[in-house]
Amino acid sequence: MTAALIWLIVGVGLIVAEVLSGDFVLLMLGIGALFGAGAAALSGNAFVDVAVFGISSLGLLVLARPALKRKFLSGPGVKTNTDALVGARAVTLSTVDAHSGQVKLAGDIWSARSIAEGAVIDPGTTVTVVEISGATAIVSAEP
Known about the structure:
The chain is of the alpha+beta class. The chain has helices at 3-21, 25-42, 46-73, and strands spanning 89-92, 102-105, 108-114, 126-133, 136-141. A hairpin with a 2-residue loop joins strand 2 (102-105) and strand 3. Helix 1 (3-21) runs antiparallel to helix 2 (25-42) and helix 2 runs antiparallel to helix 3 (46-73). The chain is rod-shaped and about 80 Å long.
């Protein structure tokens, strides 16, 4: 087996293994191994192959990986967990006041309370989630 073929197999194997990892490290190393395969096909010198692999992998890890992580893993504006529920609409299932009540929110039943101290929201009213406090949705009646 030629060195270029070995580099190619290692590179593709690392890229495929990235599917299990999801952290973009194996992807960068796999792309570096593909550069190493190209160097092996062109030069035939093992030292050049390893140098190309090392430099390209390091460059990709330092320069490309942080940008990919920002874009795909923790993109700005992507709300998760309870943050994603703030601003959502819900329907009251029981009377909601400043102390207790229930709403149907995102397909689940949540305990709720009104954001306004004296406000009483009747069952069946559509409300907007203003905040999530623990397991309680703080809601406001829609105008």
